[in-house]
Amino acid sequence: MTKQNGSLKSTIAVSLTNYLDAGAIVAGASGLTLWQNYLGLSEVHLGWLNFISANCLGAALGAIIGGFMADKYGRKAIYTYNMLVYMVGVLTVMLSVNFPMLLAGFLITGISVGVGVPASWTYISESSEINNRGRNICISQMSWGVGPMIILLLGMFFAPGGYLFDWIESLAHLVGGADISGAELEVFSSRVVFFSLFVVAFVAWNMQRQLDESAEWLAQKEAEKRGEIKKTGMLQSFALLFTNKVAVKTVAFLAGIYLTWNLVASVMGFFQPHIYETAGGVSNEQANWMNCIQWAIIVGVTLVTSQFIDKMSHKLIYIVGLLVAISAWLIIVTIGVNGMVGLWAFAILWGVQGGLSVQIFYALWGTELFPAKFRAGAQGLMFFIVRGLSAVWGLIFTVIYGDNGEGFTIAAFCMLALLTISLIVGVIGAPNTRGKSLDTITKERYGDNY
Description:
This protein has about 450 residues and is mainly α. It has helices spanning about 1-30, 30-40, 45-50, 55-75, 75-95, 100-125, 135-160, 165-175, 180-185, 190-210, 215-225, 235-245, 245-280, 285-310, 315-335, 340-355, 360-370, 375-400, 410-430, 440-445.
């Protein structure tokens, strides 16, 4: 029981990285208009902020660097320093007075997010008991839902006209002087939201730097010292990832399930309130509340999933989740989202699939199906590819969707095609790893030399 409590505690500490990842994306998106008005930014400026943020290039670059660093220097090294970089990033955003400063803050935050994600999934899996690995991954996934939900609520309450804007106004006058007004006053609400991320990052840093190093990683390094397995550096691990047939097939499988699903999920994560407003015809406040309720559904369903994922067929849960996701988009092409029935049905179903999502199984299988020597690096590479292509797909989606949602039905068919591919690939290639140790899985797939 003590060991199980220990793995749960470390899971919670590491999962704060996911909260901060999702929180940074939502905080940036929710405050864009306020920063635009304050700094006089153009749409091109906003495009650059999104492109280099935690949602796109910044995280992509950080992931491929952080993944291989975690394999070379250890998982603990990432947790000892990475949150400090994150704090610098959000503090830079919070104190920004011009566009270059804001851009730098978004980039630093995005890179830090990318560095931490592959290490977090790897550490959770390696520190979990065999029969709790799925549960702990689900707990980690819950923080991806809690982050947007809390940050979205803060953004709504603190925004101009929000329930707590009077408090923001008083704080702004206290800090900036009685003369602060207009756009300078309104953007203060976004500064406070980013400060909340700074506080959580500080708490996460204090928790994570006390974690023990991954026993799996230490065992790997000891085996290398004794000559039992071949020692590899960062470049050699990268080369192995593309020359080992099993590893190549694994990358193809994970790309097949995760990239296709994430192209849909990334669009919904950034554009969902906008879609609800333009295609669904609801107000901004209604759209934000619907989005917030949907995140609450995701958190609740993920909590339920965590209780039985280690006891049931992973393939079955995977199939059910994608069938729910496909059902949500079928509503778009049949009922539509012009009425509240269709809109709420879509929102609820998409929330349910989020609690059974492909990302849970990507995080689980991504840590199980690679050996320790390039486990984090492989995930970093995958995250780099996924976030990079998601950025490109986001631009394509806006063209298909149109200015007022006139292309939403066509976009829905594209989403259905992507989700169907994810379903088919998962049904064909889902591994049977439940109840097996990471060492056993590695030996079964790669032999004794890894």
